[in-house]
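User: hey, got a sec? need DUF2490 domain-containing protein folded
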Amino acid sequence: MTRQISALVFFSFFATLGYGQSVNNRGWFFLSNTHSLSKKIDLLTDVQLRSANQFEYFNTLLLRGAFSYNFNKKRSLALGYAYKGDWEHQQSKIIYSPENRIYEQYLYNFKAGKTELNFRLRLEQRFLKEDDRSFFSQRVRAFISAQIPLVADTGFTRGLFTGVQDELFFNAQNNANVNNSLFDQNRSFISLGYRVSKKIDAEFGYMYWLQKEKEGITRTNVWQLMLTTKF
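Assistant: Yep! Here you go:
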């Protein structure tokens, strides 16, 4: 099972390399935390900072929070809100484009031996503003990941691991307001990480980001530092 999922992620990763019209290079920092409020309720919070093309300047802030209900240790449902702000430098001007989202999420965690796997399905209601125009769209995101221990203790509570993941984005409503396409984007990521404890993971890796725009397809190389905590 682990080999099949890893092969699927790597296939998706390399299959996208042959497409696109332009290549950008960016750096992301991603902090993700799960805070247990009770046996059934968790508070989920994410903070992401993104640089602009060729690491020239900071241009994106993403803040995301949700309450998650745990059916058991493997399955959960969440309802949340996200804010995304983009600051694009165009000639002598800085253009600010905000986006507010409401989202619903289903998460399934399971193991294959020591390997930890996650499947996530997310539906987003997107409220965007661009060039003094406000519009609405809905998007579906399907995510799968695997954390494979390389040099770790028996229970994988500490040690070195590799991470592979892939996420597909599809426009479910009003795609004319975004890119006139059902397909929105694909993000494939591979990383090397270290589990400090059951509560802290740190990893650094490379993401290949393929995004459909109205005028074509954009390819982006992203170097991401990610910190995941559970308290």
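Quick note: The helical segments are 2-15. Let me know if you need anything else on DUF2490 domain-containing protein.
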